[in-house]
Amino acid sequence: MDWTSLTQLRWEELSLTQPLWLWILALLPLLMLVQRFSLVDLSRVQQFFSFLIRGLIIACLALAMSGLSSRSYSQRMGVVVAVDVSPSVPDASLKRSQEYIDKLWKSRKGKDELRVISFASSSRLLKTKEGKPPVLKRHPKEQASNLQGAIRHAYGLFSSGVLKRMVVVSDGRETKGSVLEEASRAKSRGVRVYSRAIKGPYPAEVLIQNLILPETIRLRAPFMMVVEVFSTYAAKKIPLTVYKDGFVFAFKRVDLKKGLQKFRFRVQIDEAGLTTFQVYIKPKKDRFKGNNVYIKAIPILGEPRILYLEGNPSQSHYLTRALQKQKFRVDVRSSYGIPTSIRDLERYDMVVISDVPAYRMSRSQMRLFETYVRDLGGGLIMVGGENSFGPGGYFQTRMEKILPVRFETEKKKETPSLALVMIIDKSGSMSGNRISLAREAAKVTVRMLGANDKVGVVAFDSRPRKVVPLQSSSNKSQIISDVSRIPASGGTSIAPALEMAYRMLSGARAKIKHVILLSDGQDSRRGIYEIVQAMNGEGITVSSIAVGSGSDRSLLKSIAEMGGGRSYYTEDPYNIPKIFTKETSKVSRSSFVEEPFRPRVSRYTQAIKGINFSSAPYLLGYVSTKAKPRSQVVLSTEYGEPLLVSWRYGLGKVTAFTSDVKNRWSVQWLSWSGFGQFWSQVMRDAMRQGPSRLFRVKAKIVEGQGKIVVDAVGPTGQFMNYMDGKATILDPRLKRIKTTLRQTGPGFYEGTFPAVRHGSYLVKASFSRSGKPVGIGQASASYAYPAEWLSASPNLERLRSIAEAGGGKLDPSMKLLWHRTPKERLLTHQPLWPYLVLLALILFVFDLFLRRVRLFGRAAYISS
């Protein structure tokens, strides 16, 4: 309020919002009494003016506290325009929206306000520069339309004392929130909501809207697959392809019509397990390429399948034939065929790993096995052999975490003493992950060695350096500390490092003397072969590890062959620790027990029911391990070490059999009549098998939120109530999500989970009562692409509903938007307390002046 308006105020325009504060005026008589008996040395006239000013100060403060304000009526308009800039809006339409904003900006009158916000997943207030209209911009990486959020944002943008109007400029394709609910709420808050359709022309668009599959698909039974395709134009002979687990499954050329069509494929599935279907259409004209693909996964139930991973495939027939005679379906793969995706692994009920070295298995593949057992309830068996358990390099890996045994020896026999020297290349090319993993490999090796073993470490670049002198490995903490300080710098010179290791071992007292040489570089052969021959002459063996394509594989292989050791090559530096542990186990032989023994029964379970082990043939060896605390040892050796041991790991079961299934240690068992029965029962005990009841589970994803619905019905049709329900969800990146399923009705359970990544989600539901399993179920949900990509034209019905709910109109003219009737006015209260406080301060200063300066005559007591 300016000074002119203030001077033109009338009494009828004033009001008090908190009149109770007027009691402050009661202080005026007290002020008069104080003034009457005051001893101030001023004239009566000056004292009177002082009293008058103080009274005015009290009156100003009383009126300010009482909320003195002026009342007036205003027809000032405030308009907020929310413009949709989500991906569903074409670029040409966005330009038209900008033109609309520019015209609306110019049509403002007087003190009317106009603010513009843009929205997609979020909403943003657009700033103006130099009085020019704001410029619309896309919201990068936002793949949704949140109209409700835009309206909520507008509430805080209106100034007080204005008539509130809002225009939602959109295609009406809401993918997040509830705009109708918010439009109705806006109307109740005095905001009139209009809507304006973003009109075309919309680009040509073809999209796959859905893939419909039967809820239950039986193995080798024909079924109908329905693909729903929406197109904005007609076209002929458009390729439509269906892939199953990455391979072409069905194909046809289709004629498209404008609108929604359904195309049917009659197909059948010949393999059980989780099957992923991917439908792809390749139109001639299209806007969004991402909505031409639709992915859906569904479990196919069938006969049990076993994946047999054998490091020596030529000897896989022993176990394979025995299991096939017991009616198992067995797929044999070498160590190069280890699954790399959960889709490949999930189709199997059991995985057998035999003689596969750890360096053949990446960290991500080990995580896959953990997910397969823990979250999908799969069965896993590791069988002993030269490349299994500790000797296979699995020491301190994720696989050791999964297995029910630790790779520590507890056998009651002496093992040969070992003197081991590790030669580590620390040249500049080893910087980064390579040197850190080489240090870690050396540390793991030190931890593996026994108290009677000796260890030394040599690091080399252009010159060798004795990092750890040859000493007892019992001093592990100091040795590990010294190894941790090996840097990476310099060139590569192998011969001096071999010479230093030779001198360290030549005088050592140990039955086994061994060198492990690690390098990733090139070097001349001068002097190397002579040193290795001298070492070999004194019983010192040498193994080599070549890292990366830049290493001299030929030289390192020759060193290993001449030194009587083994040569390794890896492209992945993360395999270095696995190779070190494997090589250490091999050279020490401390993990192998190669003596005939007959298994001893430690616990009777279903796995060995009906088998007489007292008459079973001898096994000729096994890998020494130690059972973990919560595991169940079923069979043991004469030293009390585990032979057959298992435990539950998450939803699945993991078993370890420390002897082999080939003609090295089990040669007598292969001709034993109980061999097939034994392995059949072990497999059935460990493989994936749910409780007696399989519940019906459905899952779907809407607006980034997954919903799980379970219909739990018992065998006689009764509702299964009061159960504890849990669900484990694997997203497209195999990230595990857990949620609780709560009962919402008789035999009805529901749960939700966040779904932010596009792809297929696998849902596993399990139910228990008093800790005992009752039933399970599984389903899959597809989040093929953002809902924004489903848009091909504006949703006029939704836009009309928004306007009706908000008390406005669809596509209002600018004249209507700014129009106000005489009755449309707002009573406003302009607070006057700032002026009253300012006046009180001025009067206070003047009062100080009157009390300090004599203005009128003599003192009051003299004049009297």
Please tag this protein with its features.
26% helix; 21 helices; Rossmann fold; alpha/beta; eight-stranded mixed beta sheet; 864 residues; Immunoglobulin-like; extended
Main sheet overview: 8 strands, mixed
The CATH H-level superfamily of the largest domain is Class I glutamine amidotransferase (GATase) domain
Helix content: 25-40%
Secondary-structure arrangement, i.e. CATH architecture of the largest domain: 3-Layer(aba) Sandwich
Top CATH class of the largest domain: Alpha Beta
Number of helical regions: 21
Uncertain stretches: 410-414
- Give the helix/strand class: alpha/beta
Strand order of the largest sheet: 16-15-17-18-32-31-30-27
Strand content: 25-35%
Amino-to-carboxy terminus distance = 49 Å
> How many domain units?
6
Q: Evaluate the radius of gyration.
A: 42 Å
CATH topology of the largest domain: Rossmann fold
Average pLDDT reading? 86
- Shape, per Cα inertia axes: extended
Q: Would you count the extended β strands for me?
A: 42
SSE inventory with pairings:
Elements: H1 3-7, E1 14-16, H2 27-36, H3 44-65, E2 68-74, E3 77-84, H4 91-106, E4 113-119, E5 123-125, H5 147-155, E6 163-170, H6 179-188, E7 191-197, E8 206-212, E9 223-231, E10 235-244, E11 247-256, E12 259-267, E13 273-281, E14 293-300, E15 305-310, H7 317-325, E16 329-333, H8 342-346, E17 350-354, H9 363-374, E18 379-383, H10 398-402, E19 405-406, E20 418-425, H11 433-448, E21 454-460, E22 464-472, H12 476-483, H13 494-506, E23 512-519, H14 528-537, E24 540-547, H15 553-562, E25 564-570, H16 576-588, E26 592-593, E27 600-601, E28 622-623, E29 626-627, E30 632-636, E31 642-649, E32 652-657, H17 675-686, E33 693-694, E34 696-702, E35 705-711, E36 724-730, E37 736-745, E38 748-754, E39 759-769, E40 772-783, H18 796-805, E41 807-810, H19 814-818, E42 826-831, H20 833-852, H21 860-863
Parallel strand pairs: 3-4, 3-6, 6-7, 7-41, 15-16, 15-17, 17-18, 18-32, 20-21, 20-23, 23-24, 24-25, 33-40
Antiparallel strand pairs: 1-2, 2-42, 4-5, 8-9, 9-12, 10-11, 10-13, 13-14, 19-29, 21-22, 26-28, 27-30, 30-31, 31-32, 34-35, 35-38, 36-37, 36-39, 37-38, 39-40
